[in-house]
Hints:
The structure is a single chain. Strand 16 and strand 17 form a beta hairpin. Helix 4 packs across helix 7 (154-166) and helix 4 (109-124) packs across helix 19 (508-534). The chain has 593 residues and is of the alpha+beta class. It has helices at 47-62, 82-94, 97-102, 109-124, 132-136, 141-145, 154-166, 168-181, 250-261, 277-285, 296-299, 307-321, 328-332, 364-393, 401-414, 449-457, 474-482, 485-496, 508-534, 541-548, 573-581; strands spanning 2-10, 16-27, 34-43, 74-80, 189-198, 221-229, 234-241, 267-270, 289-294, 339-342, 345-352, 357-362, 421-431, 437-447, 461-466, 553-558, 563-567.
Amino acid sequence: MAFLREMRRKDRDGKFYSYWVVVKTYREKRTKKVKHKILQSLGRLSGKEVRDLRLLWQMKELGEDVIVTKWEKIKVGDSYDFLTMLVCDYLYKMWELDKVLKNDKSLTEQVWKIAEILVINRVIFPNSDYKVSSWYKTTFLDKLLKVKASVVNPSRIYRTLDTIYEKTLQIQQHLADRIISLGFDDFSLVLYDITSSYFENNRCPIVKFGLSREKRKDKPQVLLALCVTKEGFPFYWEVLPGDIHDSTTVKGTISDVKEKFNIEKVCLVMDKGMVNEMNLKEIERSGFYYIVTIGSNIFRNLSSFPGDILSDISKEIEKEGKKEFPDYQNVMKKFPCFSFHSKRAYFYLLEGNENYRYILCFNPEKFIEERKQREEKISSIERYFTQYNKELLKARKTRNKKTIEYQLYSYLKKRQSLNLFTIHLVPHRIKKNKTSIITTYQIRYKINLKKLNLLKMTDGTYCIKTNLPQQHNEYFIVSSYRQRRKVESSFHYLKGFVEIRPFYHQKEERIKGHITVCILAYLIQITTEYLLKKAGINISFQEFISKIQQKRAVDLEIENIRKKDVKLPVLSQNIKKLLSAIGINNENGLFEK
Length: 593
């Protein structure tokens, strides 16, 4: 390595002067010592000449790509969120989702790349499929995927949705295979549930009015049936007409899971909305197991139901709940018949044999919450009756008794309290003038104490029924049922972050293609959280994105040499750690391993 060195000498008069030389370092072979060799003497130089030489020397060391410019000649253009795009592209390819479409030789490169663009859009910036083309122009994806913005237009997007719909079964089977090959999960537990999504139009034949989970009775809807593994990875979904009942979907799901995925032994985990005797028998005929919850009216009538014990627990929990810092665990220790699973779950084997087991679960916090909610509901209904009585006393003409009864019925039905009150209407006559008398009514009501006590008896409880073999203990069964939150959280993601609805498509195949895109976007999100958690980083996908979005790429232009390029930022150690957790190390030369 060569460099400039200043040499100092005395002249004949004893005065010091300096001159400059070019020196090279080398290692002597015999002694292995580092020595200096003068290559050239440059004589005496001014300060400016030394600075210029050093600058030229630095430029030479930088190589042929060195750029000479002025600060004001550097123009900064648009900035891009490039890390999020990079992560999504990496995970999309890790799942090999592109190969599902690549394997069809009749499809062009544009189709499978637009499919990826649609999925990434749902992950990062959910928008209508029509607007994806304008969003794409503002992103880093054209540089990452090498797809021109003119290619990503509404016509191609809609055709790609049609293709995705046609390939849905292959995508599902591919995901099931990759879940195993990646070592992420198995199919010992399959969590199944249904949700609804509403529409802005009802021109599609599968869009129907039905029971809305989103409190949008005014909108037609479709149903989404979804199966995920115990870690939350989706592998099967079906879009169904919006007017069918949840329980009628179970038979078709069992058949599909068995035939399409060649799964022999699996345990379905479902809530009580899916449960009826016909469905449970169908699951058993298929050779599958199940973990389900049953209605309180069923388990309350089991001979082993511990009504007296629950009554004693209720008194103790209510007393403890009035304290500033209640300790429910200490209360539950007084009742050792209930085994501890977690602070929110204690369990008790009601009945068990070689075919079925019933496991009663108790949640102290849920108990307090349900008691409080019921008290508030009863107080609210009583206030409604009081206000209604005042309005009836102000009547200016005779009131129709049947109309009042219907209004009360509708109100109590809406509040799910039809059997909680006994109501009768008492006639009340009001004299308006000397000759005119009108008849109105007053509401007289009683709380149905028998019904109230029945409800109180099961506060904070739910009951699990299963046909799993005896080698799976009760703790395992309760844990497995509580995993059902994974499928519930998938719906939360789909609606809250991927923004699956409202829909604007009118063709059935595009609706189904759109839903497949949304589920693949959810797959990217849940995979990120899974890999982060595996690395000991417990943050949500949204927190992860907010951290990596802080580093942005920028367009740079150097005017005097007419050069334009994208400059990537320097990544902090924290961001490198996050990226490394999901498997990105020195990807595209961003940082060292």
